[in-house]
Protein 1
Amino acid sequence: MSHLAKTALITGASQGLGACMAKRLAKDGFSIAVNCYPSEQDIANAHEVAAACRELGAEVEVFPADVSDFAACEEMTKKVKERFSTIDVLVNNAGITKDGLLVRMSEAQFDAVTSVNYKSVFNMCRHVGAVMMRQKHGRIINISSVAGLYGNAGQFNYSASKAGIVGMTLTAAKELGPRGITVNAVAPGFIRTPMTDVLSEQVREKCLEAIPLHRFGEPEEIAGAVAFLAGDDASYISGQVLVVDGAMSM
Ligand code: NAP
């Protein structure tokens, strides 16, 4: 791998979609900055993802940081820039769920989900956006959800956070566009990851009925959409939300 390889920073990449995106972008020739939550288990998982990226020929390093923490994101951005010189692609992927019906939802449930899923996107766009502005190029890809576009009963906090990401994507596309930076969102439907593995068989069956392709998506199918938006073929696409849901929300 040449030292001129572009660098992609992916948040929440110790498992699930983020891990899959890291491997796909490594295969596409990017150097990879793997962010994970700073717990022992997540760091160990992130190192496994890093090893897989290295086997694909990528330069890679793990950067543990809680993306809901503004100062931690600033520190991580500095470290990634020092290690790789540029940050060409930022994928804001980290996310959690704490589901519950609106009238039973606690303030803690709401705050936890909005700070990890939504405020993190501000934190990362704020710091990495400044780096990209100076570089005069960059791609930001925010992972939203169909729940943010159409709502989902039981996910008031999650839907709010994912809808907020769309607003941030559109505004950042307008503000950063003049510096050659594109900003897009990907809105997955139901994808087979640890996040959806916890769904009951009953919920799973109900979901499948609503999906014309009659299957859950695979992580590789989201990673493919991210790779497209990060790649040369998407150079004139900005301010868009790419829905990848097997026609579920049509
Ligand atoms: P996942 O397997 O649970 O992965 C999410 C990752 O984010 C985990 O590695 C998690 O670490 C990490 N994370 C959580 N809080 C963090 C924090 N404060 N700082 C840094 N990292 C943190 O979920 P997934 O299915 O891959 O989801 C990835 C993204 O896609 C999320 O934004 C999710 O909302 C979105 N999405 C997923 C689906 C789907 O069907 N799977 C559909 C629509 C949208 P821990 O393991 O420590 O929590």
Protein 2
Amino acid sequence: MLLPQRVRLVEVGPRDGLQNEARPVSLEDKVRLVNDLTDAGVGYIEVGSFVSPKWVPQMAGSAQLFANIQRKDGVTYAALAPNLRGFEDALAAGVKEVAVFAAASESFSQRNINCSISESLDRFLPIMEAARLHGVQVRGYVSCVLGCPYEGDVSPQQVAAVANELYAMGCYEVSLGDTIGIGTPGATRRLFDVVAGQIPRGKLAGHFHDTYGQALANIYAGLLEGIQVFDSSVAGLGGCPYAKGATGNVASEDVLYMLNGLGIATSIDLDKLIAAGQRISEAVGRSNGSRVARARLSA
Ligand code: HMG
Ligand code: MG
């Protein structure tokens, strides 16, 4: 199969990356990160979450963050919303695109959002209705698509069923999340192939955490399946607070380097992205999780 000519990267570092930081990250550092990513040419930035601050304290200042970033025309600044309350808070903060998040495994759904899969889907219906009313686009996530930290194996059919519900209720795109980074390329190809039996490939995205070092290979497997949207996190920041041991998403710099090498176009400047990742890594006191950034910065 031919590789796509162009790929859209969804930068989830400010949200998926920073949500897992135990120590508070200052508003100033978060604002600078989002502005640096904008300057690097990133077209889609997941800025924060309108979730319960008791569940994810690091995302508590998301409204303030949205009030302070410099928005550039043509760039999408999105936020997670788990329920109508979160959607309304996001709307009040001037958010134009939200993401709802469900899971393919019941145990993860309970641990992450304290309800069953079907209850979560019911909660999203009023969000979809309000979003339509306000012209807000909604992206959907399915977690644990290649395995669950509590239940182990997850079948592609289970994933397809949840993804299809999200698509049918009006999510314009569904991102399939390997939350614990456990998948391998063959399983990834099979997953996209099965889910694409229900949802067009152009409406699917891949979201790979890099816990087992398989994320780039899984993205390549996704490209071979005709997937053109991938989520990534600058400097490989992050993890999921409800998936113990899960590390950050694949580093955006590493994905971009691979895409550049494959001759696949994006809108992003690698040098500026590396600088953005290094700046936030220093600000949060972490070593830079991007192999490409480390290589370039030590050269
Ligand atoms: P709950 O405790 O069942 O909710 O939590 P509740 O309705 O009973 O409310 C409890 C309290 O939370 C109340 O406050 C509510 O007002 C408040 P209290 O009366 O106790 O003071 N509350 C809220 N506050 C702020 N914003 C809200 C909100 N809703 C209720 N939106 C709930 C249910 C969904 C709220 C909770 O479980 C939650 O916030 N979970 C978020 C978990 C999360 O953010 N996880 C990480 C993101 S998902 C992820 O990382 C995976 C992904 O990257 C893909 C992948 O990798 O697989 C997307
Ligand atoms: Mg994630």
Protein 3
Amino acid sequence: MDINGRAIAQVIRTTLETEIEKNKYTPTLAFFLMEDHAPSRVYVGMKQRACQEVGITSIKEELPVSITEKGLLEKIDNANKDPVIDAIIVQMPLPDHIDSNKIICAIDPIKDVDGFHPLNIGKMMIGDKNALLPCTPHGICKMLEIENISTTGKNVVILGRSLIVGRPLANLLSQKGKDATVTLLHSRSQNLKSHLLNADIVISAIGIPHFVKEDMVKQGAVIIDVGMNHLEGKLVGDVDYTKVKKIASKITPVPGGVGPMTIAMLLQNTLQCHIQRLKSNLSL
Ligand code: GUN
């Protein structure tokens, strides 16, 4: 059975829209992206449309690939100081001459809507309820919750150790309350198949089209596909969906699964940034 991420995300978006309208909130999200990176353009476009729908103002600045690290740091500094801006996204990836860790650390943690700043990662790790959680892992946790898929005592196998998905997700799912037994697999892992066959829940975020095949998952497993890959002109996930669907109890399609949840969590985080700034009077 499919997990309809689009429908779940829509409920969250409607709730956010109502909350923004009712309280006359004026959240503003600023995007920085590299002008030569086509996928970033597409993703940011989708995020901006979603912002508009719920009443979040978004600002976008496309940067030339020739921008220096210092130049980008200055832009971030200005956005940090700008009282109108509640939340900042520097869309990854960045060109090789820019140290993305330095950029992430330069964003004011209160405006770090991606939840990538070490302070927010630390807050997530200690289970601080006010932490800004990374959008994709947060969206996956929400999706499992809403679908009544318990993670308690379950073998959860995550494919991919990225900072955006795999590592924070492994942390969240192993925390008290989620109580999963998490295995984090990556490009150097051995016996991949035996780990996967042992999984009650498989979450794939490796960016290889159709990597997860039907002989790699156990009957009745839940399959969460984070992949957004292009194959023969089509958007496909990391999972060989048509075949794995026959074995899985529940599976997320691509598109229409995790993607919409990521965007919904971004909107929620933006509102969280706005409210936190209102409370701390920083916007005055
Ligand atoms: N590139 C791909 N996904 C993301 C994301 O969630 N945030 C940022 N900043 N860049 C990305």
